[in-house]
Write a structure and sequence with these properties.
4 copies of one chain form a homotetramer.
Chain A: E1 4-9, H1 13-24, E2 29-35, H2 39-49, E3 53-55, H3 58-63, E4 69-72, H4 79-88, E5 92-96, H5 103-114, E6 121-124, H6 131-141, E7 148-158, H7 162-172, H8 175-191, E8 195-203, E9 218-225, E10 230-239, E11 244-251, E12 255-258, E13 263-271, E14 274-279, H9 283-286, H10 288-303, H11 312-331, E15 335-336
Parallel strand pairs in A: 1-2, 1-4, 2-3, 4-5, 5-6, 7-10
Antiparallel strand pairs in A: 7-11, 8-9, 8-15, 9-10, 11-12, 13-14
C-alpha cells in the first residue's frame, strides 16, 4: 500500500503542528510538500522535516503531481478559494476551520465538494477526535445518559494571551465565530439537533478594546434546540487559570463532564497554595492528540475510500449558527433560526 | 445572659430538623415550644426533645408568654400571616423561604417587619450560611476574583424523589419558584446587582406530568444583570446522581466553584465502577450545618441586638425575580425587569 | 429526662473546644463546671459560656455534687490520675488521648475503669466519630471491600506550626506516640487485628532539633498484622500544604480512601496557581464535627446506660504499639510484638 | 538525513505496540524488519504495517544489512543474549526490561554494552518518558519540593486479569521482579540515591496459587535509602478498579502526586454510582505515549550521536534491588544492601 502524499499550506503555529504530525506521527502518510509565503520558514521547515517540495505559491502546490492531498492551514480568508482550487486539481482536502468567513463562502465550498464526489473532503473540527470527547459521544449514542436535557460548553483563552486576542480582534469575527464555533459543532454532534432560538449577552469586563468591534471579552448564549435540549455556551478571553475547554451533557439518566478542569497532566502539586493541578496553556497542548487523530482519520478515509463523518455541511451549519449568535449578541434581541 | 426561648411552628421534615437543632445544637437558645396540626407528632417530638409547651394552634403559640422568638417552618401559604401575627405579638421571627407565595404577600410581610423595627426578622436563605458559600463570598467581597463575569448555579433534585415532586407539582409554583429561588438569592448576594432581562427555557424531558402546571422537569434561564454580569441558572428534578447544588462564579481575576460535585463526605471508593464519590441525597444532608448556622445567627442577632444581613426585602426581590423567570418560561419571550 | 451535667478540666486549645461543644452543641448535656489552673481563663470562659461552677483545683471539681461526668482534657501526664480520681468519686469519664504516658499508667487506668463497671468510660479517639471514617468503617464491616490487604495512614502537621512542634519535642514522646497513635487506633479498628512485627525509619529532613530527643521530623513504619494485613504509617511535621490526615484501605474487592486531600471546604479556586483546593490548617478544623460526635456518644451512653465501643483497653493497646514503633525507630531493628 | 531503520524482535502484545509505533508514530525511524517465531503473525504484521523484511530467526535479523538498530521485545529470558548478539553485529539496541533474568545476566549485558561504546543502548524504563512523570521529575530536580522525605509508589494490575497473572506466576520471578522494578527505577531516578535496608511483607490475600512460587498476590516493602529518603513500594495483582500506577514524592517544601487515580481519560460520569472516573485497564493504555516517547528518544540518540539517560547500569541496579526485595520477602528478615 502506498502512502498518501500530503502537501500542507500555511506554516503558522497550527500549520507547523500539522506539518510535524504529517511528517512523523500519521500512519500511511507522507509530508511531500509545504507551502507558505514566508520563504525562509518554508526552507527551514522542509530541511528539518525532510520535505521534498517547497512552495511559496499555492498555485504551484496545487499543480504538483506528487501531491495526493492538501491540508489547508492558511489564514481563514483563503480557505474557500484554496479548497475549491485544490479539489478542481483532483486533490483530497483537509481544511482547518472555518470553512469560509461568510455563509456565502461556505456555500461555495459546498459546491466545490459536491462537484468532486470521488474526493475526500474533511473539516478540522478536531474536538470530535479528542479521546475524551469521542468516549463521551459513544456513551451518548449508546443511550447511557438518556435524553439530552442540557448541553453546556465553555471555551476560554488565558488572560495572559490577551494582547494577541486584542491584536486579532479586527479579524476574529467576534467570540462566537472565533471561539464558540467548536462548541456549536459539539452541540450539534452530541444532540443530533439544530437550534431554534438564541439569546446572547456579555460584554467587555476587563478589556474595553473589544467594544470597537461590537465584541466582548466574555460572552454567552442560551439556545433552545429543536429536540428541546437547552444549550448554554460561554466564551471568554480572560481565563485566570489557563486554556479551558469543558463540556457538560446532562441527560435524563446520566451526566457526562469532559475536562471539567483543564489539567495539564496527571501531576498533583501539594504546596502552600493548597492541593492543585496546573493547567493547559493553549489549544496545541490540550488537543495535541486530537490534531493527530483527525488527520489520521482523513488519511484513513482516503486509503479506505470512505467519507469522514465531519462534512462540508457541518461547516456551513456551524457558521450560520455562529453568525446568528453574533447577531443576537449585537442586537440584544431574542432571535429565531 | 438568658437563653432565647424559641417556639417552632411546623414539624415537617425541615421543621423537625430545625426543632432538633434549636433543642441541642444552637448556643444561647432553648426550644421552649412547638406547634403543629398533627397532635401525636407534637407530643412525640416534645417528649423526645424535652420541650415545655405543646400547641396545635398557631394562635396559642403566639399567645405564649414564655416564647421570645418564633421559627416559621409551616407550609408556604401560611408564612406571611404567621410572620405578621408573631411580630404583632412582639416575637422575633425566623421564617423559612418563601416569604410569601405571591409578591403581594411579600409586600405585606415587609410592612409587618417595618412596623416592628425593634424585633429581629430573618429569612431562611440557608445557603448564605453554608461554610463553603460563606468562604467563597468572602473571597468575592475581598476582590480576589476581580469583577464578576458569569454566575452559574444549579439546583438539582434526585430522580429517585420524582414521585414526591410530581405530587407537589400543583402547589410548587414551578421550578423557578420552588428551586431556583435559592440560586437567585445567591446571584444577588454574590454580584450585589439586580436583573435586567431574562430568557427562560426547558421542558418535560422525562416526566410529562409537569406540563399540566406549565412547568418542566428541567428548566434554565439566562439573565443579564445591571452590572453586566451574566447569570445562568439551571434547575432539574431528574438528577441521576443525587442532590446537586453547585455554583460557579467566573471573575476577571479568578474563578470559584462551590461544590462542583455533591460529595457525600470525604470517602473515595475505588471499585469496579471506577474511582468515585458517593453523593448527597437531599438538602437536609447537604445543608445540615447551614441550617444550624442560620438559626445561630438569628439567635446571635437577638442577643447582640443587631439585624441579620438577610432582610425581608431580599425575600420580596427573590420572589419578584422568580415570578418573572416563570413568566419568561411560560411565554417563551425575552422579558425585561 | 435530665441532662448530663459535665465538668471539664483543661482549657487549652482542645479543652476550650470541648467546653464550647458541651455548652452548646451536645444534646442532653450541660456544661456545669470547668476547671483549669489559669484562673482568669476559667472566669472568662465561665462567663462566656454561662457555666455555673468554676474551679482551679481538680480535687474541687471531683468533689462537686452537681457534676455527673468529667471530661479530662488536661496535660497528658495528668490523665491517668484524674481518670482514677474521677471514677472513684462516681463520675463518668471522657478522657482525651493518651490514656497514660506510659504503658504502666495505662494499666492503672484499666484498673480504675474495671473497678467501676457501672460508670461510663470513654477515650477520645475522635477519628472514629468523623462522618467519613465512620462511613468507611461501615463499608469495611459490611464486607464491601473484601479482605483488607493494605492499610495506609498519614498524619501530617503543617510546617508553619513547626516552632510549636520543636518547643513541645521534649514532652511529645516522639512522632509515633504524639501523632501516629490515632493511625494505630484506626489500623486496629479497621482491620480488627493486632501487629506482629514493625520496621520503622525516618529522620530529621528539615529540622535537626528533633534528633536530640531521638525523634525525627518525618517518620514511617511498616507493620505486619496477625491477619496478614500490611500496615504503612507515616507521620510528618513539615507538611507544606496543611494539616493532612488521610487513610487508604486496600481490600481484595474494593479500596477506600478517606480524605485523600485535606480540602478545607467545598470551594475550588481557579487562578494563576491552577485549579486548587485550599487545605485544613489544624485538627480542630478538620475534626470539628468528630469532636462533637464523640462527646455526644459519651453522653448517649450515659443516658442509654450502655458502654462506648472505644474502651480503656484500646488506649493501652495503642500505647503499647506506639512504644514499640518508637523502639523500632530508635534501634533500627525489626521488632516483633 | 536518513531514517533509522529498525528491526523489532518479538510480536507479543507489547512487541506489536512497539512495531506499530516504529512504523507510524516515530519521527526519523522506519520499521524495516520484524522477527518472531510465529510465522503467520510475522506475515500478517509485515503486510499490515508495510515492513520490508520478515524473519522467524533472530540470527537472520541480526545478519540483515538493512537494519541499523534492533528493538528487543522478546521473552525476558532471551534479552541478554539478543542484546549481545545485536551489538556484536554493530546494531544499536533498544531493549525492553528486564535487562536479564539474573544479576549475572545483567553483568553480561553490561559487558556487551561496554564493548561497543560507539553504539546506542537503551533500556525500556518507559515511565521516565511519560509526560507526567517527566514533569514531576523536572520539578524535583529544580528543587521545587525541597529534600525528598518519602517516596511512595504503587503498581497494581486489575483483578480481572488474574488468570493471566496466575498462569505467568512460574516465570514472573515474583511481584518485586515482575512489577516493582519500574517503581524501583523511579525511586532511584527521583531520589538520586540507592537503598541501604529493606523490609518486605505481603501474602496471598485472594489467590493462594502464588504461594507455590514463594510469591504473594499483594506485597509491599519499606526501604531506607542512603540519602535517608523513606521508600514505600506496593505491588498488587487484585486491583478492583483497573491498572493503577501511582507515585507520591513528599519533600520538605512540596509534595507531588503522579496519577493518584488512574483516570482513563478526561470524562467524568455522574450517575447512580455517584460521580466517577473510569480507569485505565492496562499498561498499554496508561503508557501509550510513554512507549512512543522512549523509542523516539532512542532514535534521537542515534541521530544526534548521544547516549540515553537510562543506562545499562540502571538495569543491573534495579535487578539487584528487586532480587533483594524478593529475598527479604521470602525470609521475613530485615536485609541490608
Amino acid at each position: 500500500m502506498d502512502k498518501v502524499r500530503i502537501g500542507s499550506v500555511g506554516l503558522g503555529r497550527l500549520g507547523l503542528q500539522h506539518a510535524e504530525n504529517i511528517a512523523g506521527r500519521i500512519q500511511n502518510a507522507e509530508l511531500i510538500a509545504i507551502c507558505d509565503v514566508d520563504k525562509p520558514k518554508v526552507e527551514e521547515t522542509a530541511r528539518r522535516l525532510g520535505v521534498k517540495h517547497q512552495f511559496t505559491s499555492f498555485d504551484d502546490l496545487v499543480a504538483c503531481k506528487d501531491v495526493d492531498a492538501i491540508a489547508v492551514v492558511s489564514p481563514s480568508a483563503l480557505h474557500t478559494g484554496q479548497i475549491a482550487a485544490a479539489m478542481k486539481a483532483g486533490k483530497h482536502v483537509f481544511s482547518e476551520k472555518p470553512l469560509g468567513v461568510t455563509v456565502a463562502e461556505c456555500k461555495e465550498a459546498e459546491k466545490a465538494v459536491e462537484a468532486h464526489p470521488d474526493l475526500v473532503f474533511m473539516l478540522g473540527f478536531m474536538r470530535r477526535f479528542d479521546e475524551s470527547y469521542k468516549y463521551a459521544h459513544d456513551k451518548v449514542v449508546a443511550g447511557e445518559i438518556g435524553k439530552p436535557v442540557l448541553f453546556r460548553s465553555y471555551s476560554q483563552d488565558p488572560e495572559k494571551f490577551i494582547q494577541g486576542s486584542i491584536a486579532f480582534a479586527p479579524h476574529s469575527g467576534g467570540e462566537f465565530l472565533d471561539m464558540s464555533v467548536h462548541d456549536i459543532d459539539l452541540a450539534r454532534w452530541f444532540t443530533g439537533s439544530e437550534p431554534e432560538t438564541v439569546y446572547a449577552i456579555g460584554g467587555c469586563y476587563a478589556h474595553p478594546e473589544f467594544a470597537a468591534y461590537k465584541d466582548g471579552d466574555n460572552v454567552s448564549c442560551l439556545m433552545k434546540f429543536k429536540n428541546d435540549c437547552m444549550i448554554f455556551l460561554f466564551a471568554g478571553r480572560t481565563a485566570p487559570h489557563g486554556y479551558n475547554v469543558e463540556t457538560e451533557i446532562i441527560g435524563t439518566k446520566g451526566i457526562l463532564r469532559i475536562a471539567s478542569i483543564p489539567q495539564k497532566n496527571l501531576v498533583e502539586v501539594l504546596d502552600s497554595h493548597g492541593v492543585r493541578r496546573e493547567c493547559s496553556e493553549n489549544f496545541l497542548e490540550r488537543f495535541a492528540t486530537a490534531y493527530v487523530n483527525e488527520v489520521q482519520e482523513f488519511v484513513n478515509c482516503i486509503v479506505e475510500k470512505r467519507k469522514p463523518s465531519v462534512t462540508v455541511y457541518d461547516g456551513t451549519k456551524v457558521s450560520e449558527i455562529a453568525y446568528t449568535c453574533k447577531a443576537a449578541f449585537e442586537s440584544g434581541e431574542l432571535l429565531k433560526f
